[in-house]
User: What shape does this take?
Amino acid sequence: MKTGKIIWCLIFLLGGIAVVPQAEGSRFKDIAGIEGVRDNQLFGYGLVVGLNGTGDSIKNGFTEQTLSNMLSKQGLAMKGMTLKADNVAAVMVTAKLPPFAKAGTTIDIQVSSLGDADSLFGGHLLVTPIKGVDGKVYAVAQGPVIIGGFSAGGSSGGVVKNHTTVGCIPDGALVERELDYDFGDKREFTINLHNPDFTTCQRMAEIINAQIAGVHAVVVDFASIRVSMEDSFQGSIVALISAAENLEVTVDSRAVVVMNERTGTIVMGENVRISTVAIAHGNLSIVISEDYAVSQPRSFAPSAPAGGAPTKVEKGAVMAPGGQTVVTTETTVGVTEEKKKLMVVNRGVTIQEVVGALNAIGVSPRDLIDILQTIKAAGALQADLKIL
Assistant: This one.
């Protein structure tokens, strides 16, 4: 009878263990990228016109020279002429060319003043070729500049909202040249983690080998996994990448505590642990205040004559010579010390217990920064400490 009860208890416990939900994982595409598939930086130099007197002055020579060259290309003889057009500003145009961008598609661009313009509000960017680091033109930009703010003022003051010398043009550039991505003949690709970790790499390789037939995944280093197609794999390299990037894995990471002392922000990962440690934290406040007392003589007091002799006002009373104002200082010093008891913080199993134990001391986020630094110095904080 006892044996039967034990068996039923074991079955019940095993059944309870079987239904425990596993931790949700992250998709491969959210934590990693395919080697070679990335954005490319583009930049160019151009002119913004149509400004309401807020453009560049003649002090910088490049704006005048650029305007002269532009007008010369339009058939106007501008050689040797002095140009003073404060409705023009020289700008740098930057953009990101996404992978697989096709000719004729549009991309967003950012426009930044290069000279001493006051504002790009209301300006229009003229046709500007934007190039890659190889010197080739990959897109052409043009359009009205949006700055999301304004600036106005006079000779003795003004009002400015947002940054008025940097703007953007949504879909402001047309792609003219495509980047080459040859996936047709490839039989393998490499996955690179955004946050390298040996454990996460090993888990990803095991998941790929277990869930996708006909492929072989191997860990190259703590940031890369190489996936190769075997002869038995039915499908293309694009189909394999699509299947792999939608797999999920439980991401592992180092224990890190990030602190921003300027704002009092503290962020701790779930793997942060604190060994058993005793903490006492109290602030000593010293307040010094000063009050000023003024001794003022009576009004209308008769002054002493030129000889310095006292003046009689009435019988039996003699007034002193004209009085003098005296200022005296009264200083008060007060000392207040918080009465904090020594508290033992046991080893934290989870981040909730760690934070709960530290909050039990009644400290503010800024005090918690000092406490965590001291705990780290004592060797009781098993985490990397990063201070911004």
